[in-house]
Amino acid sequence: MTPRVLLASCRELPESDGDDTSLPEALAEVGVDASWAAWDDPDGGFARADLVVVRSTWDYVDRRDEFLAWCAAVPALANPASVIEWNTDKSYLVDLAATGLDVVPTELVHPGRSPVWPVGPFVVKPAVGAGSRGAARFDGDLDAARAHLDALTGVAVLQPYQRAVDTEGETALVFLGGVYSHAFVKGPMLSESAVVDGSGLFVEERLRPVDPARDLRRAAEDAMDAAAGVLGLHRSDLLYARVDLVRGGEGEPLLLELELAEPSLGFRQTDGTARQRFASAVRGALARR
């Protein structure tokens, strides 16, 4: 019997932003029947699917509790609901830093609290957010930073801005089934020229493929191992992951984000073999079930 897979999206982007749109064709090549459905569609058929893969569910930010309840109710979800709950709150960065992983210094600022402002430029963003919405960079204007912080709902994240982003961008390394697949570079996004996509769900990214440096590859592998340890999972339990790295003041790799919930995987920055690897990882997840 042909396995049935649903790729979860949202109503604004029913077949993703274009990056994942051809995944059903890639899955069909390995004998998997796949189609798209908005996560909040009551007729989506998620309970009957052999596997539901969370992809472009980017409207969850304002309805996180509802989204997490949906995740918990789906019998076969990738990545697992417990992973998505942990990863959709950027407090997870503190958990990873506690393992000894090199993470961009992160302070969690609770509503009504006054943070310790970093020296030099810094970033303020919501702990629950996607697509860089609500993230802003400041350099010396503490009044503007306080106003932005006060305007955010819930816990905020405060991080020193890593200046290397202006010249090198962020390097995103993608893992499929726990195994490294490919990488791409994201240009600076917190600038006055940043443009929000027409869906209103994310800031448009300037991307290019890259063969990452050896130290970045090692840092990404370390991040995957640390996350698996914190979550009590094997790396292969993570159907997909994206490790976003930047360089610190001494050129050292630092973890900026570890995306395990609904990251764009940069398939358009690769040849077709990355989609084939994704399809094989899905077949592996189906076999383990």
Automatic annotation (TrEMBL):
Domain named ATP-grasp: residues: 93-287
PROSITE patterns noted in UniProt: ATP_GRASP
Listed InterPro entries: ATP-grasp, DcsG_Biosynth_Enzyme
Top-level division of the source organism's lineage: Bacteria
Keyword Lyase in annotation: no
Alphabetically ordered keywords of this record: ATP-binding, Nucleotide-binding
Name assigned to this protein: ATP-grasp domain-containing protein
Source organism of this protein record: Saccharopolyspora taberi
Lineage: Bacteria, Bacillati, Actinomycetota, Actinomycetes, Pseudonocardiales
